[in-house]
Sequence to fold (248 residues):
Amino acid sequence: MKKAVVITGASSGIGAATAIHFGKNGYFVYLMGRNKDRLAEVAVQCRSGASLMSCDLTDVPALNKRIGEILSTNIHRVEVLVNNAGIFDVHSTEQGTDELWQKEFDVNLMSAVRLTRAFFPYFKQHGGGSIVNVSSSLGLKPTAATSAYSAMKAAMINYTQSNALEGGPFNIRVNAVAPGIVDTPIHPFNALGESEKKEAVSKMNPMQPLGRIGTVEEIAKAIYFLGSQESSWTTGATLTIDGGITLT
Fold:
């Protein structure tokens, strides 16, 4: 049975790069995300095959339907779950409405909770599995005006550790990555024109001791390491990949 990985937020950025990297290493990829057209563009770059699981992760019935489709297949053995989907808002404390907090909660945390809850029994049945949660350096060291996002990403780290303890006896490994500033569509500077984006990035580069922001490929490689058997004796870990920004 061919090994497979499930990746949320796979239509762009870190999720897309991660899907492509797993595909290069022999994994069939289940691509989850809202934009079917962009998922299709990623799918053709997955060397070992891919299936489009388009849905809004906050639509619980639609999500459960997609999960059921994946779990019922007899063609692929899902070995890895990557909870990557996320949104990012910058707002002051006064601007942090209930609606904004609820949206951050549903996308950044509860989507991972629902998928993890569904895959735990599957991994137990099949002798183990690996879950990688995408947190953020802001979950370790928040900045002003990122309270909702930072809180959800901090919760993701704690959730990772709790599930690692619970999953250990069943050979279910649960780890997290905490990226810093990475060149992805989640950041507002990606909506700028080419020259404006270049200027914005040049101002952010010195914030990292290594002198630059990160790439999606660098995060993808770290996710693959934690998801695959290359990290077979690692669980409950949070791998910070941030150019050293949390040290400043």
Summary: The CA atoms of residues 185 and 191 lie 8 Å apart. The radius of gyration is 17 Å.
